[in-house]
Design goal:
- The protein is about 10% helix and about 40% strand.
- It has about 450 residues and is mainly β.
- The strands form eight sheets. Strands 1, 2, 6, 28, 29 and 30 form a six-stranded mixed β-sheet that branches. The chain has a four-stranded antiparallel β-sheet with strand order 3-4-5-7, with no helix packed on it. The protein has a four-stranded antiparallel β-sheet with strand order 8-9-10-11, with no helix packed on it.
- A hairpin with a 3-residue loop joins strand 29 and strand 30 (about 340-350).
- The longest helix has about 40 residues, at about 420-455.
């Protein structure tokens, strides 16, 4: 990592935190040990994973609803297990997906203006994984394609407009730590607990590149560097030093750069801004957010500056560039998760002029898809549609309708006991079932001991 001071228009980028009354306060943030960012952001809403008893829940908060939230603030609580991850549809700001320990991914429709009451019935339930679903991630260019990863070591691609599983990627031998799409969305990179980095051709369902990454026993993260073939990973060395590796996805023989950051214990969360070529690194449990500039010409990572805070973070979310305050030269807005609130931090380039600055705001990813799901799975590839921010971005007031042809799953109606006799009958039925299960376990234990003795005698 080069510490040579070089000329850069982003060298003086500075972060400004919001006051507590401009944060999203009084939130019971999830305490799940699963490695996730806990928060996702789109131009209209902030999604936060919550600690909930008797199932899983997450809050979807409109940007304007700052301050202390009510104790009975409406939430989305349709999962039977803890919510581990969420992601907003990049082409429909009123659609959000969630992943949970209950082995399901669900798709939800957010009413205009946000929730007025809690929701427990999803627009779509995606069942197919055998163990908990750890990540959900929408496709960057094709509409209505959702990716999910699971502790069953698989990655599935779904067409949510039909509720169909289209692709299942296999090849992982351990828990999947992190995934990231490339610019066109035809390749997917993943990091895994088996310490390997894999690049998949998702439509051919094959691994096109594979290499051994960070050697530490802790997890790792990955992010694709925009429209380039470059990939960045964060992880730990054998001696628990925090590292950043830079790779060329076309050749995994050796990393382009291997840099040691520090000896912190928290996972480094990477985020690459394709518009500014800036890489943000924030460690879980740290208060600081480091940012660097990637130069593809000399394949170097240059230190820019660091946002410093004494309050440790639990997760980060990034606002899409089109929703940033362009007139204030805001190049990024990060939502930092604290134990009981979420804090927006604005990163700006100091400029005296109030005019549009085209050198720091090139055309950015817009809200319209380049492909339909059917076009993508038929083999078409297209880059994201870009928009100019010269006149700002105005969000359309009306919510875009989401339609799915997936059949509705009707939950069987459970008849609860009403009379004393029905309660007695239910009690005896459960007791008999319990005895039967105990007998089955006892017979299996005896069979296991018998087989073990046969093996020992050979």
């Amino acid at each position: 990592m080069s510490r040579f001071v070089r000329a850069s228009k982003y060298r003086h980028v500075f972060g400004t935190p919001n006051k507590r009354d401009q944060c999203y306060d009084n939130i019971k943030v999830s305490r799940s040990a699963w490695d996730t960012n806990l928060v996702k952001v789109n131009p209209l809403f902030v999604s936060v994973n919550l600690e909930a008893s008797g199932g899983g829940a997450f809050a979807v908060i409109p940007h304007a609803h700052v301050g202390k939230l009510a104790e009975n603030y409406p939430v989305i609580n349709g999962h039977a297990g803890a919510v581990l991850d969420t992601d907003f549809n990049p082409f429909n700001d009123h659609v959000v997906a969630s992943a949970s320990e209950d082995t399901k991914a669900m798709v939800w429709i957010i009413p205009e203006g946000g929730l007025t009451e809690s929701i427990d019935k999803p627009a779509l339930t995606l069942s197919g994984h055998g163990r908990k679903v750890g990540h959900v991630l929408f496709h960057p260019t094709a509409e209505n394609i959702l990716l999910s990863t699971s502790a069953d070591f698989t990655v599935k691609l779904w067409d949510i407009s039909k509720g169909e599983e289209k692709v299942e990627l296999s090849g992982h031998t351990e828990i999947i730590n992190s995934v990231s799409w490339n610019w066109e969305g035809n390749l997917l990179v993943s990091t895994c607990k088996d310490k390997k980095i894999r690049v998949f051709d998702v439509r051919a369902n094959k691994v096109v590149q594979e290499t051994v990454g960070h050697q530490g026993i802790k997890g790792s993260r990955v992010t694709w560097f925009g429209s380039t073939p470059i990939i960045g990973t964060t992880g730990f060395s054998r001696t628990s030093d925090r590292q950043v590796y830079i790779w060329d996805s076309r050749n995994f023989d050796k990393a382009l750069k291997e840099e040691t950051i520090d000896t912190g214990s928290g996972m480094l969360i990477p985020h690459y801004d394709a518009d500014t070529s800036m890489l943000y690194l924030a460690g879980k449990g740290d208060g600081n957010i480091r940012y660097f500039e990637w130069s593809e010409e000399d394949t170097s990572l240059y230190v820019l500056s660091e946002y410093k805070s004494s309050d440790p973070l639990r997760g980060l979310g990034f606002l899409p560039k089109r929703a940033c305050s362009i007139s204030e030269c805001e190049v990024s807005r990060i939502y930092k998760v604290h134990p009981t609130f979420v804090e927006p931090i604005s990163f700006k380039v100091p400029r005296k002029s109030d005019l549009f600055q085209p050198d720091i705001f090139p055309d950015t990813i817009g809200p319209d898809p380049s492909l339909t799901a059917d076009e993508f799975f038929s083999g078409k590839t297209a880059p994201p549609k870009l928009i100019s921010l010269e006149h700002g971005f105005t969000h359309t007031a009306a919510a875009k309708e989401f339609l799915t042809s997936a059949p509705q799953i009707v939950e069987p109606e459970v008849k609860h006991p009403q009379t004393e006799k029905e309660y007695q009958d239910a009690y005896h039925a459960l007791r008999k079932e319990n005895e039967d299960l105990k007998n089955q376990l006892s017979s299996r234990d005896a069979r296991i001991r018998q087989l073990e003795s046969q093996l020992a005698s050979k």
